[in-house]
């Protein structure tokens, strides 16, 4: 699937945030902040899917 540069930028920014939250949760496993970070990573994944879907629906180059 061919996508525009904006779609790639959206994906990479979200993936960077997800990686940061996941690594933090793994590094501090068992602590309350780690559990919060893991939950935030799930929320960010959901937000990424929503943002990419919205972009795909509106972008003339991707859709």
pLDDT under 50 segments (min length 5)? none
N/C terminus separation: 10 Å
Q: How many distinct domains?
A: 1
Q: What summary fits the major beta sheet?
A: none
Mean pLDDT: 94
Beta-strand share of residues: under 5%
Shape verdict: elongated
**Total strands:** 0
| Helix segment tally | 2
The radius of gyration is 14 Å
Structural class call reads mainly alpha
| SSE string, helices as H and strands as E | HH
What level of helicity do the residues show?
A: over 70%
Overview of this protein structure:
With 63 residues, the protein is mainly alpha-helical. The protein has one domain (5-58). The chain is 79% helix and 0% strand. The protein contains two helices and no strands.
Give a summary of the structure in a few sentences.
Helices cover 79% and strands 0% of the residues.
